[in-house]
């Protein structure tokens, strides 16, 4: 999808606005003013849902400052929300299920870098909770989730933060299926290796363990993923070794979260 770019200067700050054609210049200006308002209200790093002329949207803000953040960007690293916008557009163009990104704003002033990402809002349930609550749907739900993740990998994309908050399952008939959210953890890698895929699923496995997902349910998901990879032309060469790699990554993630006293999920 083609995007439109414009630069807005305010005092000694420069803001680059990149938007899709569905976002008017007036709406883009509104979101830019939202960013300035959040800064004045000390709401840095906030996430919110609000109504807009293009429907309900999610606004996500990130703030970096100091040499580590800015020098990294000057050295060629994309700000995380700018990358999420780009990969979101790429994923949508490939028919993958992720909320459509609408606009990203990047503001720089000295050693401060702020970004605001705006995307469409989608609805759904925590997939692990739904598997536990509606047992009659578990095979379909787990197969749908496994196939969607396999489709991302087959498309040359990976998500390093697969967990329940970043996955939703929409059970409505007209839009049934999983959504993959928060593409801050997504990367374009060309052809994800088995190690990369095992790491992604290891993160998801850690989320499943923390949610006390049943072992037979995880086995259904894992087997569905392996089948989907074969159907998509990206087969898993050694399913046993692949599962061992997933378990290693899951154990590392859970141990790291315990050390840092973070939520296990």
Fill in the keyword field for this structure.
Transferase(Phosphotransferase), domain 1; two-stranded antiparallel sheet; 265 residues; 6-stranded antiparallel beta sheet; 22% strand; alpha+beta; 45% helix; single chain
Low-confidence parts: none
Note the beta-strand portion.
15-25%
Shape: globular
Strands across the major sheet, in which order?
1-2-5-6-4-3
- CATH superfamily placement of the largest domain: Transferase(Phosphotransferase) domain 1
State the major sheet.
Answer: 6 strands, antiparallel
How would you describe the oligomerization state of the chains in this entry?
A: single chain
Number of separate structural domains: 2
Mean of all residue-level pLDDT scores: 88
Q: What is the N-to-C succession of helices and strands?
A: EEHEEHHEEHHEEEEHHH
- Architecture per CATH nomenclature, i.e. the level-2 architecture of the largest domain: Orthogonal Bundle
Total helical segments: 8
Rg from Cα: 20 Å
Distance between the termini: 34 Å
Looking at CATH, which topology of the largest domain would you report? Answer: Transferase(Phosphotransferase), domain 1
Helical percentage:
40-55%
Question: Can you give a write-up of this model?
Answer:
By secondary structure, the chain is α+β, with helices and mostly antiparallel strands. It folds into two domains: 117 residues, no CATH class; 133 residues, Transferase(Phosphotransferase) domain 1 (Transferase(Phosphotransferase), domain 1, Orthogonal Bundle), CATH 1.10.510.10. 45% of the residues lie in helices and 22% in strands. The strands form three sheets. The protein has a six-stranded antiparallel beta sheet, sandwiched between helices. It has a two-stranded antiparallel sheet with strand order 7-10. It has a two-stranded antiparallel ribbon with strand order 8-9. A hairpin with a 6-residue loop joins strand 3 and strand 4. Helix 4 packs antiparallel against helix 5, helix 5 packs across helix 7 and helix 6 crosses helix 8. The longest helix is centred in the C-terminal third of the chain and has 21 residues. It is globular, with a radius of gyration of 20 Å. The two termini are 34 Å apart. The mean pLDDT is 88.
